[in-house]
Amino acid sequence: MIGNLAGGEILLLVLAALLVLGPTRLPGYAAKLGQGVRYLRDLAEGAKGQLRDELGPGFDDIDWRQLDPRQYDPRRIVREALSEPPSGSSSGRGARGDEPDEKPVSARMTPALPVHDPSLPTPFDLDAT
């Protein structure tokens, strides 16, 4: 079994190629396919060699399976993000850690915005226009 193709499906593809291309042109296309596969393999090996040269000895220490995008499950990532406490949180305790903060959570999370006094002219910045 190659990838997701079973033996019967591969045989069907070979028969379809034989019918479409004909027996005279099929060997030429098979040779071109072989050359293309060799070119891609050489290209991948060259990229791997260049990466090994640029990263140095740390290249062999990299866990490539960890970087495989097929392993990422969005549900697991969200579940882990929601189960972890936010970094740097004080867990609702005061400065000493034994008494709760005086402000409600909504007041602590919203930044204080400057209030505009209607009796004063609107601020104007020449450089911003």
Task: Describe the model.
This protein has 129 residues and is an all-alpha fold. 50% of the residues lie in helices and 0% in strands. It contains 3 helices and no strands. The protein is elongated, with a radius of gyration of 32 Å. The model has no long low-confidence stretch (mean pLDDT 77).
Q: Which blocks of ≥5 consecutive residues have pLDDT under 50?
A: none
**Structure summary, number of beta strands:** 0
Please write the string of helix (H) and strand (E) elements. Answer: HHH
Structural class by sheet pairing and helices: mainly alpha
Helix content: 40-55%
- In one word, what is the shape? elongated
Strand content: under 5%
Helix count from the secondary structure assignment: 3
Radius of gyration: 32 Å
Multimeric state: single chain
What is the typical, i.e. mean, pLDDT? 77
Q: What is the end-to-end distance?
A: 66 Å
Main sheet?
Answer: none
List the helices and strands and how they pair.
Elements: H1 7-55, H2 74-83, H3 105-109
